[in-house]
Hints:
The complex is a heterodimer of chains A (263) and B (356). Chain A has 263 residues and is α/β, with parallel strands linked by helices. Helices cover 36% and strands 10% of the residues of chain A. Chain A has helices spanning 24-30, 34-42, 72-83, 93-97, 109-116, 148-160, 171-177, 202-205, 222-229, 235-245, 253-262, and strands spanning 13-18, 44-47, 60-66, 85-91, 139-141. Chain A has a 5-stranded parallel beta sheet, sandwiched between helices. The N and C termini of chain A lie far apart (57 Å). The model of chain A has no long low-confidence stretch (mean pLDDT 93). Chain B is an alpha/beta fold. Chain B contains 12 helices and 13 strands. Chain B has helices spanning 9-18, 93-107, 113-121, 137-140, 161-164, 189-195, 226-232, 237-245, 251-254, 302-321, 331-334, 342-352, and strands at residues 23-30, 33-38, 66-73, 76-79, 86-91, 123-127, 144-145, 152-155, 183-186, 202-204, 209-210, 262-268, 274-281. In chain B, the strands form 3 sheets. Chain B has a 7-stranded mixed beta sheet with strand order 2-1-5-6-8-9-10. In chain B, strand 1 (23-30) and strand 2 form a beta hairpin. The chains are: A alpha/beta (263), B alpha/beta (356). Chain A binds chain B through residues 1, 3, 38-39, 41-43, 153, 155-157, 159-162, 165, 168-170, 172-173, 176-177, 179-182, 184-185, 192-194, 217-221, 223-225, 228, and chain B through 30-33, 35, 54-56, 65-66, 243-251, 254-255, 265-273, 275, 281, 283, 286-288, 302, 335, 337-338. Bound molecules: iron/sulfur cluster (SF4) (4 copies). One iron/sulfur cluster (SF4) is lined by residues 255-258, 313, 326-332, 342 of chain B.
Amino acid sequence: MGGLSPASGGRLRVGIFSLTSDAGCQLEFLNLADDLLALVRAVDIVHFPMARTFNQNGPFDIAFVDGVPARPDELALLQEVRRSTKVLAALGSCSSFGGVPAAQHFHDLGDLKKYVYRGMEDLDTLEVFPISRYVRVDLQLRGCPASKWEIMETVTALIAGRLPQLKAYPQCVDCKILENRCLLLEGLPCLGPITRAGCGVVCPSVGVPCDGCRGPTEEPNLTSAIEILTRGTTYPDLIRKFQKFCSLAPEYQEMFDRWRGLV
Amino acid sequence: MAYGYDAHPALRRWLLELAADYRVLVPAEKGGNRIFQEVGTTDALVFGLAQDRTVLPAKKAFLPPEEMLFEFSAGRILPAMPLDDTIVFGLHVCELSADRLLTANMTHDRPDFHYLVRRNGGIIAGVSCRRTSGCFCEKTGHDQIVPGDFDLFLDLDGCPGWDSAGTGEQCGGGAKTSVAQPRLIAGSAAGRKLAASAPFPLENATGAIRAPVAAASSKTWPLDELPARIRDSFGATIWDDLAARCLGCGNCTIVCPLCYCFYTRDETGLAPETGRRLRLWDSCQLLAFARVAGGHNFRESRSERIWYRFSHKFMRMQETLGHAGCSGCGACFHFCPANIDPQQVIADVLEVTDSA
Ligand code: SF4
Ligand code: SF4
Ligand code: SF4
Ligand code: SF4
């Protein structure tokens, strides 16, 4: 088989790293349940602070990195991981798009330090960016949290030496196949038509509109989407929805610029 | 309001009886939607058989949204054998007509093994239609069927009370059986066999069955001319106007009884010598649909993709199979967040290509 050839013979060495985040994406590995047992038999997860007492350094064949570098030492760790890894996967929407921490871009950093970290104004913090700002990223596993299905697809693909087949199409396809009630047609602001599939449409399936945590589809028609979505919500609320998880996605920037021009 | 098969105890009993030997799909309520579901797996109220569209069309019984084609393990390939014992109950005239055309489409050129095994082993039973909002089968030529198009047909035309009574009583389901009875029409030997245990009188089919006439009088379409008209409309601004509204969400083709595009995906296991090949529904409205190895995309713009959808239905299928690849069910319009209505699209095509 033409898979990744393990760095040290035997099985692939996998590292799971967390920068600033709520670590929910790492937790998804533990949530793999039965698949996790099969996974640890198939690859060597040598670095996984959430689950292991002793963690090894590189080299790694695959590194999953969740979160964003928000402190200089995290940036150094990210760069070190990159140097010692063959395939680096951004795990989740923080590392892919800045995630919730990137909301800082819509506020003054000084103010945030004052109100959120009262008494710690000298906090040494970086501006938040996706990890691709600093290092080469080979794969993006989007979502808040990343999807278990995509984690397994990525590992099995790399073992076999094929490209992971992550879904690029909108949520609506999977939602319609599940024959869910369409919330957008009922007037609720569901971002499904312009958000990438891959989570199993978990929110619309329980009657909650998609909040777009997996980020935009390729070439989303945002102009028409805004017109349709503002039938069920206000423009400011809609913009806030787009700013929640993936505010640094390139596809959204023109929309935010136009919004900044308005306010 | 409880009406339909569970309001008609005898019909319910019969379907449950059939479900002992077959997988029987009927349109039943789930989460506020009407969905073809398996009898016996749901106690859900069944919506009026004669009205309302389901989310996914009956084609899902024969061309499932996701199916395994084969699995492999240590160099051995194990083909997946499709199920072939499904009864789908409750198709309207346009759906039966679409089923005939879809089957012709899956048979010509390169017969589709998995579809045909399921379809040929399947039994379809129609039901009188009361029309749904936004449907237009008379324009697309899918407003009538002949006996070969169905195995059984439940004719409720003598029984308007079926839809409105709220109970089956007025239609021979309860004690008061004085009112008109529904009747079954057999279109095949298989249908006749099933009907032997049915609670309705059986008649042999005599001729075509037509959909009821649309309430609003509507202009018919020159179906023979449409291929040339669609071809001529390529590049017209109507497609750009549609592209400005369309979200590219794919809802329209997923709910269409006459769309059949699929892609295959190969999955490997944690042991890389094991895996399986799946086929899943695709949609020409998605950006990646016409992207090929190397990254080239044959239909890069949304306007080309929308034109393509209509050209496949009203040009290519009309030319190769002699029928429009649109049954006129109106599902794509109903489920489209941007309200894109094929009736308006074709009216626009006719207008911009009208050289007379
Ligand atoms: S509920 Fe949302 S994701 Fe589902 S079809 Fe409607 S718009 Fe798309
Ligand atoms: S359902 Fe409507 S918005 Fe979505 S792809 Fe089809 S035409 Fe476009
Ligand atoms: S209209 Fe599009 S999705 Fe439907 S059958 Fe044709 S090419 Fe396929
Ligand atoms: S194109 Fe629309 S109206 Fe025509 S058959 Fe498909 S879903 Fe129905």
